[in-house]
Amino acid sequence: PVENETGTDWNGFFWKLATSGKGGIKGGRRGLGRSVFAIASRLRCFYAITRRLDDPDRELMMGLSLMEDHKLDDGERYGAIAHYAVKSEKWAQPVDDQKFIARLKKKLNLQRGPQPGTSIIVPFPTEEVTNDSSKLQKEVIRNYLVPITRSQVQFSVNGMKISKATLPNLMPELFQKSPAYFNGFLEFVDE
Fold it and tell me: Between 133 and which of 57, 102, 142, 158 could a Cys-Cys bridge form, CB atoms 3.0 to 4.6 Å apart?
């Protein structure tokens, strides 16, 4: 965990697997959602770059790999979870090298800009993800519809922006229904 920040969502995201400190109706309370990102990668890993509200001048990066327990040729056994991070005495720490993060964002053409939030990078996506962008876009809408309509989250999937502003036009196109089919629900959630 980021030292001296044990209660943060960032720490929970990377360290509380199959559990969470969240309760009630708060998103991420079951601690399983991030596994979707790893499963979407042929390498079974993903990376996250975040800019936090309480630290807007600095970005952090960390990676997570979810594998099976395994043994290498040297006979050493390794657990199923690995982090891409900076080694420290207590816990692996997120990468804090601002020049490295800036180069990576430029190379990957990440568009977040200076606003706070987290970008997820899924390297070598599976064929299921890359063969049909509309399938992935529909799943994002199905799984995050309420947070999207409440402007709590927005996505960019293969160049298509999915946000509160784009939903009224995207949903009829992706789901092959008339705009009127969705209007009542979108108005209801917006209240």
Answer: 158
Predicted confidence (pLDDT) per residue in 18-54, tens digit:
555 545 555 544 445 677 788 888 999 999 999 988 8
Provide mean pLDDT across the span 148-162. Answer: 84
d(CA 127, CA 138): 16
pLDDT for position 102: 94
| Cα–Cα distance, 11 to 6 (Å, whole number) | 6
Q: Against a cut of 0.70, is the pTM above it?
A: yes
Q: Which two tokens stand for residue 138?
A: 């529909």
pLDDT value at position 59?
Answer: 94
The token pair at 176 is: 């092959």
